[in-house]
Write a structure and sequence with these properties.
about 60 residues, about 75% helix, single chain, about 0% strand
C-alpha cells in the first residue's frame, strides 16, 4: 500500500470523497466513505462543504472526459 500525505484535512477529505465515487469496487468505495466520515467529524461545517464542492467538481470533470 502506498502512503499518502496531504497538506491539510480538506485535501484529505476531497481525495477520500473522490475515491469513494471512483473506487474499483463497492468494498473499496465503502471503506473510503467510512474514512471520510471519520475525518469529517473533526472538521468545521464550512470546511466539509468546501471539500464536498471541490470533490464534486473533480468527479464532474472525470465524467466529462
Amino acid at each position: 500500500m502506498t502512503d499518502l500525505t496531504f497538506g491539510n484535512s480538506e485535501e484529505a477529505l476531497i481525495s477520500g470523497l473522490v475515491l469513494s465515487v471512483t473506487a474499483p469496487s463497492d468494498a473499496a468505495s465503502a471503506e473510503a466513505l467510512r474514512l471520510t466520515e471519520t475525518l469529517a467529524q473533526s472538521m468545521s461545517k464550512d470546511a466539509i462543504e468546501r471539500s464536498m464542492a471541490a470533490a464534486a467538481k473533480i468527479v464532474d470533470g472525470l465524467e466529462g472526459s
